[in-house]
Design a protein that fits this description.
Helix 1 runs parallel beside helix 9 and helix 8 (about 230-235) runs parallel beside helix 10. The chain has a single domain, classed as 3-Layer(aba) Sandwich (Rossmann fold). The protein contains 12 helices and 13 strands. It is globular. It is about 35% helix and about 15% strand. Strands 3-2-1-4-5-6-10 form a 7-stranded parallel sheet, sandwiched between helices. Strands 7, 9, 11 and 13 form a 4-stranded mixed sheet that branches. With about 350 residues, the protein is of the alpha/beta class.
């Protein structure tokens, strides 16, 4: 994770977010806690916040309180950022039924979550706790701070449940979700996390902001992530044929990380409290087969192809029931946000960032 290419792409992506026309000065000189700071999206949030002052977007540096389960592992994941004087790495496990001491904190950006279905069967408790109990503990902790400004909850498109038809999903288009299934550990806990945010905002007047990313990809996703877009991308990075374990007809909207992170900050700085916002790129809609073909087509000299096989017996990976999962992002677009990176551009950036 320390290659020059990866650092270069991360820096370019951070600058792309910082170039967005947002009221960044609202964050000047504040202390902001980030959960999951060593993860894929959390790492991007850390980079943007620490980059605001050097880029001249805020008058005073932002102090980032990075909450991670393992400080040593967090330092490795954040790499050169770990020695930044404005970064405070602190161990905290959101599986614990306890309330962290956030000190003089102004915002919490809650991005800690086991998003990959490979965890749903093997660690359902560890999947749901950060979204449910963890969210409640963070809301309570922020409420105790001297000057709380708000909490951003990174939810998920999984909250929509089983929605019939091929229509695009607006924020109120919910479907059925069976809570008495193991796979529901993720979606139900995200639903509860959203409800906790709305309840705290209503009862205690603590501003909360809710974003629902769909299929977000980019540099920093691990090879063991387990989601199909990560698996396929690392197949290409390793020079392997892509193995298709389905008919490839399921359709998804793929959003590059810098566009998603820009959406998060747009909601935090311009959105309505206690209101969910889809954060996705409808123009990035591809079937799983189209994605595989796009990826092998990016590097024709590698001579890679797409292979079809019967699904393997992997009981821990619990597949989605969606045939088409495409969002309506008009609510976010009304705040001035738009996606800027196409799947061709984004997946090429991801592959080249991780290619030795």
């Amino acid at each position: 994770m320390s290659t020059d290419q990866l650092q270069r792409v991360w820096m370019e992506d951070t600058n792309a977010v910082l170039s967005r026309d947002l009221p960044w000065q609202k964050l000047s000189g504040l202390t902001i806690a980030i959960t999951g700071a060593g993860g894929f999206l959390g790492g991007y949030l850390v980079r943007v916040l620490l980059g605001l002052h050097p880029a001249g977007r805020v008058e005073r540096p932002i102090r980032v309180l990075a909450l991670v389960r393992d400080v040593d592992r967090g330092r490795k994941r954040l790499n050169a950022l770990a020695d930044n004087p404005h970064l405070d790495l602190r161990a905290w496990n959101l599986n614990d039924i306890a309330v962290p001491d956030l000190g003089d904190c102004h915002y919490v950006l809650h991005a800690a979550s086991q998003a990959s279905p490979r965890f749903y069967g093997s660690d359902p408790v560890g999947t749901l706790m950060p979204n449910a109990v963890g969210t409640a503990s963070l809301l309570h902790a922020l409420q105790q701070c001297p000057d709380p400004r708000g909490l951003l909850f990174v939810s998920s498109s999984e909250v929509y449940g089983q929605v019939g038809g091929d229509r695009t999903l607006a924020e109120a288009d919910y479907g059925q979700l069976d809570p008495a299934t193991v796979r529901a550990c993720y979606a139900e806990s995200k639903r509860l996390g959203e409800t906790l945010c709305v309840a705290w905002s209503q009862q205690f007047k603590l501003p909360t902001y809710i974003v629902r990313p769909f299929h977000t990809y980019g540099p920093g996703l691990l090879a063991v992530d387990g989601r199909v877009f990560a698996d396929f991308t690392y197949n290409v990075i390793r020079g392997e044929n892509i193995v298709m374990m389905s008919d490839g007809s399921a359709r998804r909207a793929f959003c590059y990380a810098s566009d998603a992170i820009a959406g998060f900050f747009t909601v935090l700085l311009k959105g309505q409290p206690a209101t969910p916002y889809n954060v996705a790129n409808p123009a990035g809609e591809l079937s799983v087969m189209e994605l595989a073909e796009l990826l092998v087509g990016l590097y024709p000299k590698k001579g890679l192809k797409v292979e079809r096989r019967l699904p393997s017996d992997n009981r821990n990976y619990l597949t989605s029931t969606f045939s088409r999962l495409i969002p309506d992002v008009s609510q976010l677009s009304s705040l001035g946000w738009s996606a800027q990176v196409t799947p061709t551009q984004g997946f090429r950036r991801m592959i080249e960032a991780h290619t030795p």
